[in-house]
Structure formats: C-alpha cells, structure tokens
Queue: 3 jobs
Job 1
Amino acid sequence: MMLLQNNEYETAIKNFKNIDHSIPIIYSVIEKNNGGKVFVDNVKNPENIFILPDGGFIYYDTLNSSEDFMLEMKSFYLVNLFLL
C-alpha cells in the first residue's frame, strides 16, 4: 500500500468513472478541493484504492481485489485510527 502524493491523485481517478455513490467525497479529495490521503497498490496503474478524506469517512475501491492490500489497509487504519 503506497501513499500517493497530491500530484499523483489523477492516476486514481479512472477507477471512479462508473460509480454512482459517494462521488462528492471521492472527487473532493482526488481533485484536491478537500484534504485527505489516497493509498494505492500500484502508483502507475492502481487496481486497489483506499481514500481517507479528512473527517472520518473511508472509501475503498477495487478492480482486482487483493487480500494483501486489504490486510495492509485494515492494519494501517487500526494503528492510525486516533492519529488521523
């Protein structure tokens, strides 16, 4: 699981073209209108994306579910729950 830098958020946007829910929350972070963090499994071609908008909401999207990514995401969230 890798943290994207702000200038890399656009690589994640293609994964959200066909969703019909949570759009304002997702795009507010990806378009840098609101704060948050974006984690991916692969910087150049992400298939698993974990978005942590500022404010306590989380969003996970996958094109190809990865058990390793999900375990890393769960561990990260539980360890950092009170630090975010």
Job 2
Amino acid sequence: MNKKELIIGIGDDRPPMNYYSNTGELIGFDTEFAKAVCQKLNITPKFKNIDWANKEFELKSRNIDCIWSSLSVTEQRRSTMKFSQTYMTNKQSIIIRNSDKSKYTNLYSLSDSRVKISAVISSTGEEVIKSNPYLINAKFIESSTIEEMLIELKKGTYDAIVMDYTLAKANVESGEYSDLMIIPDIDLANETYAIGFRVGSDMTDNTLLNIVKKYDLSDLYESVETVTGNSDAAYIMSNGEIIIGIKENNKPFSYEENGILTGFDIELTNTIYKNIGIDVKYVVIKDWSKKEEKLISKEVDSIMNSITNTSELKNNVKFSGLIVNNKQAVIIHRSNQLKYPNLESLSGSKIA
C-alpha cells in the first residue's frame, strides 16, 4: 500500500470480465470493479497481462500484487494464493458446436477417448475435466487462451471445451461464435470468483476483505442508483430491505436461469447488501419508460439494471459511481456491410 499502486494480473481477453474495446481500452466488469475499489483505497490500479499458466509464479515473484480476472476459488489454489471474500457466483460449462447438439447431450456422451476436449491450461476448466468421472475418459488437449480454444472448437479441432459459464454466455451463441452452444442441464460444481493475493498478504485481512463494510448505504461505492434525498439511506437501513427495480430478462445483467434470478448486476448487488446486512427484493418494471416514476413514487428504492448515466436521467435520478463502460452500436444485415460502412452512409435509411 505504501507504493500507492496495485499491480493487477489479468488473463487473456475475457469478455465480459476483462477485455479490450475496439479502441484498445481495457474494460469489463472486473476492470471497472477493480478501479472502483482502488479509488476508494486511494491507490492506482495497474493492469498487467500474464500467462495464465504462470499466474502463481507471477504472484510469488512479486511481478504482480494480485489476480483479479474471473479467478475461481478452488482448494488447490488455496495452497498458493490468499483469497479475498468472494464477489460473484459462477460455474463451469461445456461448449460444443450447434451441429453436435444431438450427439453430445450429457456427460456420459462425452465419456469417450475419441472425444477431443479442451480447457485453458491451469484453469478451473482443466481441473473439472481431470476430476470428473466422465470427462476424464475423453482426450484432453491443452489450450493457451480462451480465444484459441473457441477458434479450434469452431474449426473442428476439438469436440468440446470447458470454460467459465460467465465467460461462455458472453462469447457463444451469438456474433462470431453463433454456431457454438452451451450444453444445457449439465450440473458441474458451482464456484465463486475472488481476488487472489500472495500467501501471507495482509490485503485480505485489513483492506479488501471488509471493503464494503467500510461504507454505509449513503456512500456511492455500492454501485446502485439511489433516489435523491438524504433520508433514503436511513429509511432503508431501518427497514433492513432495499427494493431494486430491474428489467425483465436483461441478459447478461439480470435474467432467470432454472427459476433463479442471476446475472452480473444481481450477483454484485447481492454481495454488496449481504455485507451490510440488508435484504434485497427485486421488482420487475414491465414498462421501462416509467422507471423514474417508480423511483419518485418510492415503489422502488433504486434501479440497477444496465442503466446508462445520461443528462436527462440526472433530473430524476441520483447516480452512484460508474461500474461498467458501455456504448451504443449500430446493427445491420451482414449482407449490407459494404453498403453501410459508416454513419454517413445511413443518412436517409430506415432506422429503429
């Protein structure tokens, strides 16, 4: 802490947790979360790309101070790292090509030495493959990065890959990897994300372990939008409950999976309020255009659902600190990519 900076080790491109935008800016949930925490601690975060297979060495040799990049807590890693409190739940998922969805439907169908399966070296995915009684029978092939793994699966080099569900949802079933899919209804052990420090580090004892507990509800750290007014924090604290308005089925921020509400915003909110002893009640706002009315009438206490900080909203909403950078995108048919290469070419077109 004396050097007033925190060198944070991150893995390869890992949307939506740590990844580079088209302009080369490092963004993502973990990136923004780390910046927010470091700002509170009055230190400067410095992000350093590391070879994921050598992350323990990077920590031990003090090339980095911590790992903050969709790092899953495992018993094996506890021997080489000291973890902060967990901040997000996660699980491992199995990805295949859409064309193989009738061929690979469960773990048993993958339990064959002719099945080529991959995970990033030294990842939780590799641990799962080598410890699962079915997957261990497949032919395991190491991958260096998530991107390499996805490309090789798409090409047909692999039959299946194992990766974090959070990362899988952001990468497959749309865009460049729309021909890949997550095998549904496969139950691999749930896990959690945390920040990894050197064994013996005092950061988890005195600093990050209780970071949320240092700030009360009126502080801007908790990363939600609160109704303007000095009495709101005391009112919510006295009730022991906060009512949060959300959009319906707004992946990846809030959505239901197997009847359980989950998503980045949901997991972050649950973690924050659990640590200050507040129960969270989520209310779906069917008509999102009326969200400000719901706040003003006190039907909800806050909104946390990929809401964008705009000048117009500031008239009725008091914003927290920012948690994720975002931008708007223009979507066109792939067949029209030569016709509409820039904004000027869209002038006079029908746009929604």
Job 3
Amino acid sequence: MLKKNLSCTLWLGLLNLPLALYFASAYAPPVENSPWFVLGAFTCAAVGLFFIYFALASLILIFPAFCTKKPLGVGRYLYATLIITLLHIVLATDAQVFALYRFHLSYAMLDLFINGGGEIISLSADTWWSIGLQILVIVGYALVTVGLARFLSHHVRARFLVFIALLMYVLANLVHAYAAARQVLPIMEIQNRLPLYRPLTMNSLLMRIGLISPEELANRHVSISNGIFDYPKADLSYAAIPVPEGAGAGWGYVPDEAVIAQAGPAPEAIAGSAPYNVLILAVDALRADMISPEIMPYTATFAQNAWQYTNHYSASNSTRGGIFGLFYGLPPSYWQFALNSGVPSVVTMAVQHQGYQYGIFTSATLVRPEFNATVFAGVPNLRLESDVDGGVIARDNDAIADFEAFLQGLEPDSSFFSFVFLDNVHSYATPVGTEPVFTPVPASINHMELNKDTDPQPIRNLYMNAAHYADQNVQRILEMLEASGRLERTIVIITSDHGEEFNDNGDNYWGHNSNFTDTQIKIPFIMKWPHQEPRVITTVTCAYDVTATLLPRVFGVLNPRSDYTVGQDLFAPHDREYVLAGSYLENAIVESDRIVLIDNLGMLRFKDKRYQDSTDTTRDGFILDAIKQMSYFMQGVERVTPEATSTPLPQAAVATPDAAATDAADAAGADSAAPDAASAAPAPDVPADAEPAPAELVAPTSGAGATLQAVPVEPAADGIATMP
C-alpha cells in the first residue's frame, strides 16, 4: 500500500505537468528570437522543475493523508484536489505577475493587494470573472488528475517517466553550469525566468578539468544579449550639438530638429569643438559629514567653488549596489539581471559611442563584485585592479599613478571619461608612520567585540584620519588634472559608493551593508561643472541622477530619461517621495520619515529613520510604483505615463537634449514626483536673456529632514544665477 501511495504522488507530479507547462509559457524566452538550444534548455528546466514542484508538494502534503488502511474517502480525495488546486493557482498567479512586470510573485505584492484596501491594486469586474473561470478550470483539472493518479498508481509504473523528467532537470543544470563558465548568456537568463529555479554552477570543477582557465573566468568576454534585461528601453540616439564661442560640445545646448538633422552624427564631428571631459572621483565608504574643513580641508574648499548636494543618497549600503546605481542609473535590484545579460551601463555605452577615452582606475579589483562583466562589460583592455603589493595604501597610489599616466598619454584634442575609485577610507588606513590628526585611536579593531556600549569615538577617529589622508589623494588627483591643462574643460564629480556607521543610532550597527539609515546610504556629492557658479542644493538627490544628467548634457543622448534611468537632472532636481536602495539581502524604499524594507521573500517591514520598527505601516500607493520600478527595465514591461504638456522654450534658452522632446516622459519621473518648473535650477551656461532664475533652496544643515527655505538668487552679468 505504501508503494502505491508513493507511486500516486509521482503520478501527481507527472499528470500536473501539462497544465503547469501551459502556465509556464509566460516564462519562456521569445520563440522568434531564441536559438533552439535555449528553448531546449528552458523546456528541460521547466519540465524537471515543475515535476519536482508537484511531486515534492504531493509527497509532503498529500502522501501522509493517503497512508492509512482505510479506503480513500471523499474527504481525502477533496483534500488532495484542494492541494493540487492551490499549487496551480500559485503558479498561475506568479506566471501572470511575471508576464506583466517581469518579476515573480512576492509577499510584498500580496501584502499590498490584501492590505491596500483596493486603492493600490484593484481589479475590474471582467478580470474577476476571468480569474473565476480559470479557477474553475483548475479545480476540474485537479479533480481529474487526482482520480487518474490513484488509478494509474495501481496499474502502471511511473518510474520511466519520472526518470525522463529528472534526467531533463539534471541536463538543464549541467548545461547551465557550462553556460555560466562560458558566459552563454541566453542560457544563464533562464534562471531569472523560472520561479524557484536555482541551477548549479561548477566553475571550480570546470577549471580543474581544464574546460576553463582562471584567467578566462576573470576576463571572459561579455557580449550584449537581447535577454530579459531590457536596458536601455530603446537604442540610445545622439545629437550633434553646435558649440557656441567659449564652450564645448557638451555644454548642454540643444538646437531645433532641423539643426540637429544638418549637424551630423556626433559632437566630435563638429570642427573645432572639444566635448567636456568627465572625472568621477569616488572614495569608498565616505560619509557625507566628512566634507569639512577639519577632516577634508582641500575637498571642502573645492566644494565651496562647486555645486554641493547636501542631501544626496547612494543606491546602496554596499559597494556593489552603490557603483551599479551610479553607472546604470538603476536600483541594485537589477544587478543579477545585468550580470546574466552582460549588458553594460549606459555610461559605458555612451562613452564608447562618442569616442571618449575610457580610463578606469580602481584600487580594489573589478572582478569581485563583477564590475568587469556588468558596469564596464565589453571595455577593451580594462584595468582590472591595482596589481601591487603593500596593502590598500599602495593600491591607491598605484591607481593614482596609472591615472596620471593616462592623462599624459592622451592626445591633445581627445576627450576622456575617467573613474578613480580609492579604497583607504574603507579600510580605515593611513600610511605607516603617519601622525594621527584625530586622537585617541585604537591600536586595532576587533569587530567581534563591538557592542552597544563600545565607545565609538576612537574608531571614528581612526576613520576620520583615513578620510583626512584621502583628502590629500583627492588633491593630488585634481592637481594632476590641472597640470595636464584639462581641468577647465572637465566636469569633476566627487562622491562615494556608501556611508559608514559607528553605532550612530545606538543599535549596535557598525560599518555598512546592514541597514538603510542615513549614516550608511547618505554620501557626499560635489559637482564642478565648467562655467557654473557655486551653489548649495538641499533637495534630495541620489546616485541615479548622474546618468540622467551626464547622458543628455555631455553625450547628447536624445532619448527620454525613462529609457535608461530612474534618476532626474541634477540641474533641476525635484522633490521625491522616496529613494530606491538595495543591498545584497534586501531592497528598500527610503522615505523622508520612514524606510520600507522588501526582503528576498518579498516580506514588507517598516522602519523609522533610526531603524526602529515604525508604527506607520501604511501601504501608500507609491510603494507599488516603487516595486514596479524594480521591474520596468525587464523585457515586455511598459511604463504608463500621464499626458503632459510643456511650455516652449524661448529661442535663446537652453535645455537638455531630451527636454524639449521628452517632457511628458520625464514628468512621470522614474523615482520622483512630477517636476515643478518653478523650483528647477537653470541649465548650464544659460544665456543672459533666458528666463529669470528661480529661487534656490538652501538650508543650514544637511539632514534628510532639514527645513528648506527659499532664498532669492540673482542672475549675474553672464546670466548664471549665483547665490548671495
């Protein structure tokens, strides 16, 4: 009898495959664009996965009910039917969610549906009728399969079909393992499509048997795939930008369409023009409050002559997500999809398209996290790390020296985009023998002994000494740039990937990658743009805004920003309801007074800004909007934007390359409220006869809850608004 019941559970796994595979068609790669081996691998994985899904669930939930000496009664028959019905409903619901949003069913979605009172997710009457009809079909199918499974278990052995299903699953895993080692991206993307599918990888074994070398694994060539990661939403298009006297091609002027049509394909094609260079100088783990005359005097002085964004947030509390958000303009929830697809950041795309020299100089390796296969995928001769002995100080020095050599090797008329990423602050490191500026400092830090009662000041002093030393490296780099004669034509951005905590809120949080409070995700952001007077911006901005600013203003990208980022223009920031952030373990919707966490299981948790449980568990409508943003850049997902109209610009006024054509798309704002024209800062190099400058928002503090006050800004003689 036991064998018959066990056979029944196996038959349940087999007989429910047809309906499961029907629902699974929503997960399948596009048939018309996919090679036969991809479709074959998907089929093998789906058959094996859903057989295991139904067989294992039947073994756990139905088999015990059948293991009695009594004949199968109506009650147990209906119980088995109910279990099979629920399994199909879960699968059908997940398939529908995936078809609409390109992510899988999560508790967060169910929570919004159940507790949102119908205001966040609502279904029409026709939809409910359709759902009811599908449930009736599922119930009927379940009734038949349970009865048929009982019959077949007494008359036909299932072992051959079970062997075939399991063999297909094993084959799919082996194919994925080889594909992961060889970067066969369409195969790797299958794991993002199927729910609960976590196939094997065996890079170490494949290296031992000689199918792949460690060098190939670290430097494997990555090609762009048309897989599930739909980024950018449309191919980037570029405008040739006329250059007024005294300014380069990247200055931010957009001609009308007739001029664009006559100008040619790229800014560098215009005789005598020289696009702006870009230098992003990032210091790992640098808190926003380190930019002060006492701690980082050179950087603080530099900031006084630049645009200071005092309410700026990283995309993450960790390096991987922080750098990903900076270059992709997307939340870290897309990391795995970008890695599996091999699609580089739009910054990398634009830099290479416009013929810029690309100089990447990082102290730490680009292989872990896999920035070489994501952010900088496809960049030829990519510098992977500082290959020197002597620790983090030596690695930083090596990166700086290589940057200097890069500058010296540039042709006089060439333009460059460079990213210099220093690491000493992350390690709290200063050169041996350096006299500490801030004391006392601990001889060493035992992280196992840190607790709520540990005095944070000595550790903070060690960190501040590292920041003080990093300030000297910032000075060295910018002096190198000045000595090269390129400083005046270079946009300089100084920022970080995440912050650092020293038990600031008394909850025994130290370091980073553990919460989404301001101490861990608020970072400095200083932008020195040629021909711009200094300003202090207190409106909330974030790392995503870098792509939203540089692509149209420097590289002449004409697409609406919603094609490639969730950010907004740093020259016209608008109030946000939230900022999206992410870590290795969870995602966060960071509001002004609350943090909504979404863990890997999709569970929603609510924290206040000190990371205590929040009493405000309101499911606001924009939570669903935020969740949708985490899937918008997936294949087949479309953004619905409200109709918007824009006031025509004066003929002499300037706009970003996509402003005139895409106000409607940008008005929806990927993670911001609709733009308010009255609060927008002017674009770079606004002519003197442009519209009057708006009031600038300034505040004495940089806290997230700082009160903003409007201070009038008077236009200077050249039309550039300056602060009083």
